[in-house]
Amino acid sequence: MNRIIDRLNTLWTYVTTNPVFLKGLAEAVLIVVLSAAAWLILRRVLKLLEKRLQKVPFFQSNTGIFGLIRVAVFYAVFIVGGTLIIDLFDIPTIGDFFYAVLVVLMAVPVKRFVDILIDYLEKGIAAKTETHVDNIIFALLGKLSGVIIYTVAAILALDVLGINVMPFVAGAGVAGLAIGFAAKDTLSNLIAGILLIIDRPFEVGDRIEVWAAPSGSATWGDVIDIGLRATRIRTTDHIVVIIPNNEIMKRDIVNYTAISSEIRVRINIGIAYDADVAKAKTLLREVAREIPWVMHRPAPKVVVRNFGESSVDLQLRVWIEDARKRMDTISDITDRIKTVFDREKIEIPYPRRDITIRRAAPDT
């Protein structure tokens, strides 16, 4: 205890009797006072500027920018004052420690700037879509950005202090590679989910083909959710099919409602060769117009597609208002056509074979 007191007394004697140190200490105190005064003046100016800019729409929707500017100005004053004080005493160790701390502190405004940028992008993109995957990805980006920024700041700070960071970087690279191999399917689905947001082949509510539906069930359905890992589709049989996003990106996506809910439906009908083709076309158009959801403009159209083995192949083409009624349209029109053709004596042929049996004369 006495040795500690003696050393403190020696240090105090050196400080109080060394004119060079006293001069440097006085200048350091002056720098601190001037820096504090400059910060108070600049903060007052920033408050006045903030009041004037609050009416600007951009600053109204991004109020965090003012806080970021205040932090940036404070760090600027801190850097200038700290650099001047370090130059006064010219102690390398203290200088390195100051700059290392400064690097870590600078990560704070950088993180706040990234948060403001992500929030701005989220309001411009995620708010305009019905899917929740946008919000999940932006929240994930916010968390990952913090980890990356603070990790880089820590590595740079250690490098400023003269600590070799290459072993840490190499270890992090190996660990990241191992994690990547272990979670390659999850990462693949995550990347595919991000690509789905960028490309947008479908939205929640769209009617699309489902290639992974159970055998014998409906092969199309409505998108009910686009998740970070998978997309959920409810078929017309009310079966929910969950498909990983990376599988979706490998397939051709058939979207019936991407442009609008109006689509054209084609129905094939065969009539006998001796039937009246013109009359059959007229009846087909009349039947189509009886369906409430069939559009009159463009009008139903009938074309001759082919001459089959036993029939003249016609095709009825109609536009409907709702793509989800495609199968109802085919069913209703086909049912009505059979009734009308039977009434009007227009034959719907089916394959027939004439078999002739010849009795051979007995051998004599």
Walk me through the structure:
The chain has 364 residues and is an alpha+beta fold. It folds into 3 domains: 2-180, no CATH class; 203-249, SH3 type barrels (Roll); 263-343, Alpha-Beta Plaits. Helices cover 59% and strands 13% of the residues. It contains 11 helices and 7 strands. It has a 4-stranded antiparallel beta sheet with strand order 1-2-3-4. A hairpin with a 4-residue loop joins strand 6 (301-307) and strand 7. The radius of gyration is 39 Å and the shape is elongated. The relative contact order is 0.06.
Give a summary of the structure in a few sentences.
This protein is an alpha+beta fold. It is 59% helix and 13% strand.
